[in-house]
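From the thread on structure requests for the teaching lab: each student submitted one protein with a one-line request. Submission from student K.M.:

"Model PKD domain-containing protein from Algoriphagus sanaruensis, tokens only."
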Amino acid sequence: MRNQLLWKPFLGLMLGLALFSCKTDPADDPNIKPEDNRFTKVVLTEGMDEPMEMTFLPGNRVLFVERKGGVKILDETTGEVTLVATIPVNTKYTNKAGVTREAEEGLMGVIAHPDYEKNNWIYMYYADPTDTKHVLARWELKGNELVESSKKIVLEVPTQREECCHTGGGMVFDAEGNLYLTVGNNTVNPREGSSNLDERPGMENSDDQRAPGNTNDLRGKILRIHPEDDGSYTIPEGNLFPPGTEKTRPEIYTMGHRNPWRPTLDSKTGYLYWGEVGPDASVDSIWGPKGYDEFNQAKGPGFFGWPYFIGDNFPYNRHNHADSSYGAPYDVNAPVNESVNNTGLRELPTPVVPAMIYYPYGASEKFPELGTSGRSATGGPVFRKADFKKDAPYVFPAYYEGKWLIVDFMRGWIFAVTMDENGDYVSMERFLPNETFSSAIDMDFGPDGSLYILEYGSAWFRGNANSRLIKIQFNRGNRKPNVAASVDKTAGATPLAVNFSSEGTNDFDDYDQGNLKFEWKITNTSGFNQILTEANPSFTFAEAGTYQVVVTVTDTKGETNSASLEVTAGNEPPAVSIDFGGMNRSFWFGDKDLNYIISVSDKEDGSSSDGTIKPEEVAVTFDYVPAGFDPIEVASKQSGVESAAILNLGKNLIEQSDCKSCHQYTEKSIGPSYQAVAEKYPNSAENTAYLVNKIINGGAGVWGDHAMSAHPSLSEADAKRMVDYILAMDDVQANIASLPLSGKVEAVIPEGENGQGSFLLRASYSDKGSGAIGSLNGVDFVALKAPFVDPQTSVDRKGVQLLTTPRVSFMMAGDNSQFALKGIDLTGIQEIDVLASITSRNGAIGGSVEIRLGSPTGEVLGTSDKIGIKEGGGFRPPQGVSMQEWIRMNANRAKVQIKSTSGIQDLYFIFKNPDAKGEQVLMSINEIEFKNKIED
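Reply posted by the TA:
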């Protein structure tokens, strides 16, 4: 007994030690939610032309297709995107009035065969360029070559091209090699935003009973086929209708879909999941329920309700369009298709499967976490760790095992949906709530375990600069430090005392907080080497030179990360300033004449006020920068005038030297003309070095007997400036005239421009250097733009939701949601108008706007009255009115008269409505208009 009593504590201790020593990685514990900062967003490529769907190829490659027919491969190893082929496709429809417009169809989907490494097969779904049909075809893709002769048409779906919309085109393979294909309803959107039930003659394209509700039509379905090696297909067992069933198509797996989008399969259960885009009705009405988007699950074949039911099987009412009468709602227990356009079975399959998740424009009572505003359910993958190889580096943690990750094209969120052991809905939570995934048209896990997201971009039917392919990587181990480095002076005369700062450096791992080690290494090409080990050291550069500074931060696990900067000692940078006569430096209010005075000073060179810096050495330009170009970015680039001004430094050095006693610019003197020298020696580095040597050391015998004098006291840098000017005499840039240092410019919008660009007044001076230290540049500029600011340029956002179709919608969600506009000149500004959209369509409820100075708690400059719902003037502007003008005309304006304030300021816009529930949308912000006078 005694031994037993002694043994039990010892056994408990041993078990405890064993458990402690075998403690698993938190990423392997399904009960531990990972920190958001363990996920990293990586942008792989941008600027695509309407990307539609992606698939993964061996060798770290991603294949994606674009609507107009582009087939492209991104090689992640090199970062290069290759256009493999352009598939001929149709992208238009022509209505009964003969008007041709863009359709949603084109090249709509792509997928690689599961045995791609062996057979090189890919499948693409596209709109035939001539015939009214959609086609599923197979090609061989060998490397970056799409073998045209290998094409085999697998399946065709007859369609119509008199009306837009809804194509589907998403594809996924199951473990048995069966291919699932989503097919849209190919039907016009009804004006009332309800269901499509118009049976009148000639209105077939407004009757979804002829397609989604028709058992004998492939549209409005998810098809399941088994592609065969010869390019044909067979019907797998278990589809909705057995082969040979009268008035049915055996390819149908599920039916009753309006616009099914991206499908995925749970590899463990075999259940099928997809997003489905619903109709536009914003409220319940006599036609039936409001519109809902859906995220759906099929545990097997079935009928999902459209066009008779939506959401949780909410029924539509019978509607006789001929006499505008209404009847009883459709019976979910006995659905029938009695349309004259039906070619299939009258009695439809039961039970009707309700949506798993459904949500309207406004707040959802059942799923309030999905928020409000526009909607376009895309879909997404179900995570199963077993789907990835053991060495896949970025596999998500066990917390997401079995969860369905869903994304909405317009709302920009991703939710993780939790289901029970039967696959039934339990709950959902926002994934990376501080991130917005705009225009997500496809989303799937890649072979490396990352979550890949294909973003279409801001506007329909065109290439968008903000279309992107990104991926989300999970880091399960120790994280490297995040390094930030800055210095208070990057250049100056010696001795140059500077203060380095590592402010902003951090480490996401708690055990590293306060334990990071810093090493600042200062070097130059002359062999200087200094190491500082403080987090924020100071240092004085005694000798002139250009120094490289690298700060390396090391955490407790030995992981390092670095940042670098450059410091130039021995030359004070020039100071350039534009006096704009007290006018606003941010906005142009239509003034034609703009007066300015430019001053330049440099510690080594002198100043423009005393004439030591000559006017021709200062580059002054005034230009119109078209809309779409960032004037600040333009201002940062060297211009032709600036090149001419730099060359003028050399010309002035020539004028001040004894060179003019032997040389003239265009006429021969004792020595050759500079023009002749430029003609004899092409502008190259070798010729420049040769002539610099001749100027400093002298020479003879090239142009005659008269020897060229040496100039040993002339620095090599000044001699090079002189040579640069001479060799550039034939260049156009050398003869470009600069504006004077003071005067008046005329602000006139160029013909053909819309006035949404900017006027840019820019002054630049490159100094003469100091000894061995090269030239430094000083710049000042004034960029005047139209007094309308896009809210997308804002920062410090809270409660902002971005939607992206058919254009960007910038939604303020929740009481006290906010954003900031940085660096706005308030000189002369009296009123700021927030141009908003608050309609039943976007589910907004309205509110007021408060503007504060400097911070969310800064001085209140002004507050607007509360604004509420105001329905717009329609989706399309009248002829002769631009979309931008139309939006401004119909905007609901929150007018804020502000206190008199001058100078460059940061403004915080606070949106208020204490009645808002959670993240309920208050308003969609179109623009912010700044006014220099108060208007009624």
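TA comment: DSSP finds eight helices and 58 strands in the chain. The first strand starts at residue 39 and ends at 46.
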